[in-house]
Each structure stands twice: as structure tokens, then as C-alpha cells.
Design brief:
By secondary structure, the protein is α/β, with parallel strands linked by helices. The protein has 2 domains: 28-57 and 329-436, Aspartate Aminotransferase, domain 1 (Alpha-Beta Complex); 70-325, Type I PLP-dependent aspartate aminotransferase-like (Major domain) (Aspartate Aminotransferase, domain 2). The protein has helices at 2-8, 15-21, 67-79, 90-109, 124-139, 158-167, 184-193, 214-223, 243-246, 271-276, 311-327, 329-348, 376-385, 398-403, 420-437; strands at residues 48-49, 52-53, 55-56, 118-121, 145-149, 170-174, 198-202, 227-231, 250-254, 265-269, 287-290, 295-297, 353-356, 366-371, 388-389, 391-393, 409-413. Strand 1 and strand 2 form a beta hairpin. The longest helix has 20 residues, at 90-109. Bound molecules: ligand C6P.
């Protein structure tokens, strides 16, 4: 456990957090696992779908929002909204303070050295594209290597394919083992044979739930002279992430996966790297001076923030960070670990059901599976009739699906409001689907 915690940068369950949450991470059979939060905080969870209570098991795609986030955004829109960094009037000054205050909350949440290292973007995808354009175009040349892995989301593949095509750099992939882990022996060989300029890797697979050993990856990549970008879309929402302790160079994540609104995300980067990078998009707010001949750039973080941003969404993001901070990220991780262990045990008991990915101790709160030869989309449709929302498809990770020769999987994912009763409902509906297809 200690070793895993060290190498993944993901906190594992401690006795204290189990006691704090009441969640039993070590045994899936030890009884009911309650929600970590008051379910009434999440108004959408009171909905009925096809006459059944909503069982929302797709938080990996987008999490639901508590009223604390909804209220903060509503109150801001009703009382404080104005464009930011523009007006010398009270409303604009207040809006600017709220917007920049949210940035401070996010900086604290990931333990950034400076608030200037937190760049607002639209989402994880835009954050990675920002680096793949500005840093890559300025630093990569023919013969250089970008190293990523076969378990990446398309957002951490396609921008590097485009950057490789523009710069002449080679894009290489760390393979995955049959049980859904990164092949670290292959990683070592690749690093030695083709020392990369950049390693870009997910901190948690959105399909398999795998937690790659990012601590080890960062240490080895740095020793080989490479920078490391972590796709933290699935880690920052679910566990304590401390950029200084991790020692990574760039980190990308989205608010909508961590109880906040869609339309806003973060690129965190080490200040000296961000300072040296050229701007991404040009326009208002990112400049210091503009003349007909040329322009100069604003200081960090605004150099990378052209145009009117997602102002209300930043306020909502700040409220989401407050909510998660009050819960304690170690408690969030412990809760999801307990749910993952419970789900693995519950689903493994269903005949013909195949689960992909590592055991609970080495995964987050995500379970991908197939049931006999029922197509994942049919399964999702059947479950929807029972009020159960899961995702089906390739999950924007086609190379990973190809690795396992799969067209699609069904995927259930858990968050702070999930209970073991919802996993029981999933298991019962899957048993029912199995009897409908009668194999
Ligand atoms: N995964 C899922 O259902 P955006 O869309 O930019 O906020 O996040 C992209 C992204 C990047 N990396 C990982 C590991 C992700 O899981 C995601 C989003 C969702 O799995 C939507 S496809």
C-alpha cells in the first residue's frame, strides 16, 4: 500500500480516513456503504427516470453539481455579474475579485507555488492542446520523441499526433499489459532507446480505472531529461493532488468532473516553463500593448487567457473546490475505493460478465465491463429503463479498446454521492438484462 501510494501519487485508504467516512475499503462484503455527502445537496438525484429513481453512474463523464455550486453561480449572476479586468466600476471590480478568488482556491487545492501558475482554459482538452501548440512548437524538432501511453484518452493522443506532424518529432506509445497496467519494463526500454523530450500520461484511466505509477514515471522521465504532463482529468476530482510533491511539469483537469460546471478547466504549469512559452490564442486581455506592427503580452496567467472567459463558471468552480475541500480528498478517495471494491465483487458474481482492468487497490472508482455478447449500447438502453445511467462505447479511448480487441464496453463510475445500494441496483438490472437475452 505504502509503495503504491508513493508511486501513483494517489492517496490510498488509511485507518483514519476509514474511521472518518465509515467506508470500509478493505472488504466489499462488510455492508452498506452510504453516500459521503447529504444526497439532498444534489437536487438532480431526486429525479425519476422512466418512473424509477435516478441511479447516476456516469460521473467519470461529468459529475453532478451540489446546490452550493448552483447557488454560488446563481447568486453571482443575480448580484455581481459583469465583465472582468475591464471596468473601473464596482460591479466589475467585484466580479474580478470573485473570478480571481476562484483561481486562488484552485491553486491552493493542488498546492501550486503561485496563483500565476493556474491558467483557466475551457477543459482538460484545451489545456493539453495549449501545451501541444505553444511548448511543443517552440521546443520539438525532427528526431525528438514525445512519449505517451496506449491507455490515454483521445485528448492526450490527438494533440500530440498533430504536434508531431507539425514539428517532425516521433510519437511513441508505452504499451499496456493484459491486466490493464502500464508495461513499465517497456517504458524503461523506450526511455533508454528514445530519450523523450516530453512524457504525457494519464493519472487515472477513464476506461480501466488504472492508476499508473506516475511518481516512478516522473522520476525516470526527469532523469532522462524529459518534461512530464499529467492528464489529471480523472485524478484531481477523486484524490488529493499536490503538484509540488508530485514534481510534474504540467497538469490538466476540468471543473465539470469535480462537481463544477462545464466550460472551464485548468492548465497548471511550472512558472518558468509558462513564462518561456509563447501565447496560445491572441486577442483581448492577453496583451500588454498592441500597435499596428506588433504586440507584447500580459503577465501570467493572463498571457494565455484571450477574450472574455467563463466568469460565472469560475465562481462555480471555486464553490466546487470549497465543497470537496470540506469533504477532504482522502475521504473522497477512501469512499470510491470502497465502492470500487464492492462493485468488483458484486459484478464478478454475475455469470458471463467480464470486467476489464486491475484490482480495486490499483484502480479508481470506475468499472468497465461486457456482459456476454450483449452490445454495450443495448445494455445501457436496458439499464436506462431502470433509471440507471451508465456510459457505453469506446469512451474516447479507441487505441485502448483496440488493445483488448473490443468495440465497446459498458462503464459504471462512482463519486461522492454514490452508495452501495446503487451498485446493487446495477447488479440486479444486469442480471435482468442477462435473462432477457437468455444465454
Ligand atoms: N472523459 C469520459 O466519459 P474534457 O472533455 O476536456 O473535459 O476531458 C477530456 C478527458 C481527458 N482525459 C481523460 C482521462 C478523460 O477522462 C477525459 C474526459 C470523459 O471518460 C468524457 S469523454
Amino acid at each position: 500500500m505504502a509503495n503504491l501510494a508513493h508511486t501513483t501519487g494517489i492517496e490510498t485508504t488509511s485507518e483514519k480516513t476509514e474511521a472518518d467516512t465509515g467506508a470500509k475499503a478493505t472488504s466489499a462484503t462488510s455492508g452498506f456503504i452510504p453516500s459521503l455527502v447529504p444526497r439532498e445537496d444534489f437536487p438532480i438525484l431526486a429525479r425519476q427516470i422512466h418512473g424509477k429513481p435516478l441511479v447516476f453512474l456516469d460521473s467519470t463523464a461529468s459529475a453532478q453539481k451540489p446546490r452550493q455550486v448552483l447557488d454560488a453561480m446563481d447568486a453571482f449572476n443575480r448580484t455581481t455579474y459583469a465583465n472582468i479586468h475591464r471596468g473601473a466600476y464596482t460591479l466589475s471590480e467585484e466580479a474580478t475579485a470573485a473570478y480571481e478568488g476562484a483561481r486562488k482556491k484552485v491553486a491552493r487545492f493542488i498546492n501550486a507555488r503561485s496563483v500565476r501558475e493556474v491558467i483557466w482554459t475551457r477543459n482538460t482538452t484545451e489545456s493539453i492542446n495549449l501545451v501541444a501548440h505553444t511548448w511543443a512548437d517552440a521546443n520539438l524538432h525532427p528526431g525528438d520523441t514525445i512519449l505517451i501511453t496506449e491507455m490515454e484518452h483521445h485528448s492526450n493522443i490527438v494533440p500530440w499526433q498533430l504536434a508531431a506532424a507539425r514539428t517532425g518529432a516521433a510519437l511513441r506509445y508505452v504499451p499496456i499489459t493484459d491486466d490493464g497496467e502500464l508495461d513499465m519494463a517497456a517504458f524503461d526500454q523506450l526511455i533508454e532507446r528514445h530519450p523523450p523530450r516530453l512524457v504525457a500520461v494519464t493519472q487515472m484511466s477513464n476506461v480501466l480505472g488504472t492508476l499508473p505509477p506516475v511518481g516512478e514515471i516522473i522520476a525516470k522521465a526527469h532523469a532522462a531529461g524529459a518534461l512530464v504532463l499529467l492528464d489529471a482529468a480523472q485524478s484531481v476530482p477523486h484524490t488529493a493532488v499536490d503538484v509540488r510533491a508530485l514534481g510534474c511539469d504540467f497538469l490538466a483537469f476540468s471543473a465539470h468532473k469535480m462537481l463544477g460546471p462545464s466550460g472551464i478547466g485548468v492548465l497548471w504549469g511550472r512558472r518558468e516553463l509558462l513564462d518561456a512559452m509563447p501565447p496560445f490564442l491572441g486577442g483581448g486581455d492577453m496583451i500588454r500593448d498592441v500597435s499596428l506592427q506588433h504586440s507584447t503580452w500580459a503577465d501570467l496567467p493572463w498571457k494565455f487567457e484571450a477574450g472574455t472567459p467563463a466568469i460565472t463558471e469560475a465562481v462555480g468552480f471555486g464553490a466546487a473546490v470549497d465543497y470537496l475541500s470540506a469533504l477532504g480528498m482522502a475521504n473522497v478517495r477512501a469512499h470510491e475505493h470502497a465502492l470500487a471494491a464492492y462493485a468488483l465483487e458484486r459484478l464478478a458474481a454475475i455469470p458471463d460478465l467480464r470486467i476489464y482492468g486491475p484490482p480495486a487497490d490499483r484502480r479508481g472508482g470506475v468499472v468497465s465491463f461486457t456482459l456476454g455478447d450483449i452490445h454495450a449500447h443495448d445494455l445501457a438502453t436496458l439499464l436506462d429503463r431502470e433509471g440507471i445511467a451508465i456510459r457505453a462505447g469506446h469512451h474516447c479511448a479507441q487505441p485502448l479498446m483496440e488493445r483488448y480487441q473490443l468495440a465497446a464496453t459498458a462503464r459504471a463510475s462512482f463519486y461522492v454521492y454514490t452508495t452501495s445500494a446503487e451498485i446493487d441496483a446495477l447488479a440486479a438490472a444486469l442480471e435482468q438484462a442477462r435473462s432477457i437475452f437468455a444465454f
